[in-house]
Amino acid sequence: VSRQLKEEIRRGFAGLEDPLAGLLAMLENSSDWKGKGRSLGYYITTELQLWIKEHPAVPQSGIQLKKLQARVLGILSQCPANLLDPLISIYQLHTADRNYLLEHVSHLYLKGNYKEAAILSMKLKLQPDQDVEKMCTPLLLQDKANVVEDYVGEYPELQSKLLQILDTWCEPSFNIRDITRPYQGLSRYKPEKFNRRTLSKLVFRLLDQFNVDPALCPNVINQRHLRTLNYLFYKRFVEKTMTEENWADHVQSTVGESRCLQGHLIQLLLRHCDRHAAARWAQRWGLPTDMLPHCLAEQPPEPHTQERVEEATTADNYEDSKKKDYYQLPIPRENIHFLQTWEETLQCWEKVLQPGQVVGIDMEWKPSFGTVGKPRVALLQIAVKDEVFLLDLPRLLEQAEVEGEKEKLPRFIQMLYSDPAITKLGYGMAGDLSSLAATCSALKDTEKQQHSVVDLLTVDKQVDGLSPEHSHEERGVRQPEKGLSLLVQHVLGKPLDKTEQLSNWEKRPLREEQILYAASDAYCLLEIYERLCKNPESFGLSSDLRESLVRKRSIKPVGKKQLNKQEALSPSGQQCQGPRVEASRAPAAAVSPREFSVVCDNMLQGLGRYLRCLGVNVRMLDNEDDHRKAAEIARQEGRVILTSGLPYQTLQSQVGEGRCFSVNCSKKAKEQALQVLKHFNVQVSLTDIFSRCQ
Q1: 25, β-bridge pairs
Q2: Are 365 and 508 in a shared domain?
Q3: Which residues lie closer than 8 Å to 281 by C-beta, 6 or more apart?
Q4: Mind telling me which SUPFAM superfamilies this protein's record contains (predicted)?
């Protein structure tokens, strides 16, 4: 606003006997201020607010103020959002009679102005005296979940109450039409947005956002567990990519003491296995006969000694085939060290924190299967030439907490990542570091401080012949290799055995298979790096390995750091023929929205619409589409899959590494879009916005 206009407004206030009444008269007799944006009425109102602070004797009191408050309440329902706070401040509405304010908001509500009633309630902090279900239901029907979140945002007791209400609506026997019936004539009603699936997603987002105990929402949690059980049966009996022990472990922790889930498990066992397996699980939990199908109620479980013998024979055969078909650690078992105390870790740091050292780093955590919160690292693997150290992170952090030295372990980890004289190798390191930060808050800035980091995920699209289809044809197996396993196969000759990938990594003691799997995942990075450095041309890479990794644009995420060249020792101690790859602090090459093509799973339609507004080439699944259709589209059209929760586990196995991204469903569409754009380094310009048909 020009200085001249401000001075004119202030002279006008000074000449009025009652500036507050004068402002109201102006607003009541004009409509300029009712539109969006900053009108003349807005500038006059905000200037009066400042002027009053400089002239404290101006504000009214008593009966005169009450009359002005009654008049201004009539205006507030028509006000744009930017005028609410100034008018509430000028006319001291927080001092008005609370019952009078509640009555006015109720009048707005009865007229069908639900959003306006909620916003005014928030401005006047009336929520504790209102019915949260009554205020929020029409907003949810109008797909205004963001207003609902703001409405309960400052009141933990209202957050809990709202979540309990939403969870009740998600109960299988609850008739959602009982909620929608009173609002049949509601304007902007979006029935397709109001169903158990959408409500369940909202509950999980709010549980995470408000940090509320999930036990408050048993129906939604139970349905998530049911989906997890179905997924575990798919992995075990359809894909056949999960061992009996891992499967049983996850089934046990998923089902717990829930009789409902136990009954569902028995039905799944009868469908996928046989009566003997179902009877054994029923006996394990002591299920009453009235919960069992008729075929089990009268049949005692048979001992499965023979089955155990068969399993043991199968396991022996499997071990023999593994040595023939899969990558094997080239170091003796005694060189793999499982570390659970600070004293034990000292031998690790003495060997790792050496100038010129090349270190392979990987992490494992318990599969979340879509539960609330970020995964926490259960095992940190650090490999150097001829040795692997497996750090029991939860145990070490707990010990440090007890001893009052909780900063000790994070300090060493930060020293490792930030030391430019030590080369750190990883695969998909951004995800690992995110989980590391969720495990220990002292490590949240590790990604910003890292130096000399090489993420081999940037290599896999540039190595000649590296594709899941190539692996599939060459090995003649049903499930194609992917990700790190595919890179290991192409560079070292055999893929990784990923059978233990979905293990429960928090359970102690770790099984021998888990220990060997974890050590292999970290040590293979050293061997890949050494082989690529010695002969990059044989893998279709430039002799200048740095140029090969940086020049070709890749939409893979991890590259936040570009790579520099520097001579370094290989893991064997010999000078590499090719240059060492080192991460610099420069940003990765940007991708424009027009070059970025995605397919959004059906739970992310809001994100899809938002990305399309920004110029991204988007295809979206319909509500009735199977999630697997996203993989078909991605393969046929070269798109990246955007999905969330359990479908991610299935879809990522059907496309190449980096071609499937799990979006945080606890965020709103705008925040999800920012997450995707940052992850793939997509740079949006003004010309991109609305450049595509909506």
Answers
A1: none
A2: yes
A3: 262, 265, 266, 269
A4: Ribonuclease H-like
